[in-house]
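Problem 12. The chain below contains 89 residues. Write out its predicted structure in token notation.
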Amino acid sequence: MFNGQRYPVTKDQFIIGRGSKTSDLAIKDGNISRKHAAVIRRNGTFYIKDLGSTNGIDYKGMRIDNKRIDEGDVFHLCDYELRFTYRGD
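Solution.
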């Protein structure tokens, strides 16, 4: 979920970044790197990974490089909140 909208992750590598041509979820903000982060599906499990961005990924107040995504996890990319759910409702 981003800005109240659902973005289903239907591929093995889902790119989040500023570039509209290079990202699956484009965030138009100069603080977001062109390729900021990726949601990666490996063996049915999802992970979020920083792609060398300037401002990083924040999880529970800590900057992280990568993490397995659990139900309800909330990550911050600069001023933006990404909330993950496995539920279809």
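Discussion. The chain has a mean pLDDT of 94. Students who got a different answer should revisit the alignment rule from Section 12.3.
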